[in-house]
Amino acid sequence: MVAFGGNALLRAGEKGTFEEQMRNVETTCAQLVHLLRRGYGIVIAHGNGPQVGNGLLRQEAGKQVYGLEAMPMDFCGAETQGSIAYMIETALERVLRREGIDRPVVSLVTRVEVAPDDPGFRNPTKPVGPYYPSNPGVCMGGENFTTQSHFTRENALGWQKNDHLRTPWTGIAVYKEDPAGRGWRKVVASPVPVRIENIDLVERLAREGYIVITAGGGGIPVVREEDGCRGVEAVIDKDLASALAATSMKADEFYILTDVPKVYVNFRKPGEKALDAVSVAEARRYLAEGQFAEGSMAPKVRAGISFAESGGECVITEASQLSNPACGTRILP
After folding, report:
1. At what angle do helices 238-248 and 199-207 cross, to 10 degrees?
2. DSSP class of residue 296?
């Protein structure tokens, strides 16, 4: 299982054009050849943070300029999951042809089930979309909300109050100020993934030799009801979803690709140290000490711990390091 980080598509200082993203994806995909040469079957997941943000901007512009109806977050997640998978599939096929490797590539738009009572719905923390100079305080329905007091448990869970059909709630927007002072951003829930839809099919295809792209952006968040699945206004952490996919498929190794070759303690501080191999207990201790930043390395380490607890080995590293079989920081069972 390989989880592409955000820099696999979009890098600092870039505008995010299609050409830039295709070039970055192909560079990352070229590094996967090292794994293929060693006989691995590969399943790929990816992030979609910048792409979802850009999609939300387009939705907002479409509503303001043309009066188009804005689509909910799960729809935007599905859009970016499909478009990014298309780029990865296209770039990877080029790489495989160039390297003379005959491996078919397939993409699956993937729903990921979350619990409707996940505590994350009561405290949305995941920032999405553009920065605003002040609190917009406006819900998509046009009513003014200037504080979070209007964000009740009923709509935090993603459902319209008193509706026995539990229609997905997409009307309210909650904004929080960025700690770094860059402005205000919309925040949504980040529930824990419970089940990857069609993961048995993904495993079967991978074991038959296909390279499978799945659970992009953490998957499309849904809750299961009597009549099927319903999308919710949330973003699932892609590393946690990838760890769940890897565990469900009984993968041997789980690679989390990021922008540094190893995980560090005391990062950019006196006593900085790169970690080669750590046990689950050691990784938990470093987390408890606050060694890893939230929104950066901490979620990756948690995902690595989750997979290692199932008996596998997690490797956190930079894509360019994959030529070395002993690369990265390894979280061991």
Report:
1. 60
2. T
Per residue in 151-168, pLDDT (tens digit) is 333 443 333 333 332 333
Confirm whether 136 is domain-assigned: no
The answer to whether residue 318 sits within a structural domain is no
> Rounded to whole angstroms, how far apart are CA atoms 275 and 133?
39
Which pair of tokens denotes residue 108?
């699956």
pLDDT 10s digits, 133-143? 888 764 433 33
277 neighbors 330 (Cβ within 8 angstroms): yes
Domain presence at residue 107 = yes
- Distance from C-alpha of 117 to C-alpha of 131, rounded to nearest angstrom: 29
The candidate with the shortest Cα–Cα distance to 303, out of 236, 207, 205, 216, is 236
Q: Where are the alpha helices (DSSP H) in 112-230?
A: 153-156, 199-207
Q: How many CA atoms lie within 13 A of 278 on its CB side?
A: 23
Distance CA 77, CA 43 (A): 19
User: What is the rounded distance in angstroms from the CA atom of residue 282 to the CA atom of residue 278?
Assistant: 6
Q: Within a domain: residue 71?
A: yes
What is the CB neighbour count within 10 angstroms for residue 283? 23
At 195-222, the pLDDT tens digits run 999 999 999 999 999 999 999 999 999 9
> In the beta sheet, which residues pair with residue 107?
213
- Contact indicator for 158, 229 with CB cutoff of 8 Å: no
CATH number of the domain residue 236 falls in: 3.40.1160.10
> String of b and e for 297-330 (b: at least 16 CB within 10 Å)?
bbbbbbbbbbbbeeebbbbbbbbebbeeeebbbb
Q: Structural domain tally of the chain?
A: 1
Radius of gyration of the chain from Cα atoms?
A: 20
Q: Which residue has the higher pLDDT, 18 or 60?
A: 18
Residues known to be catalytic: 6-7, 126, 238, 300
Residue ranges making up the domain that contains 37: 2-117+192-251
- Model-level pTM greater than 0.85? yes
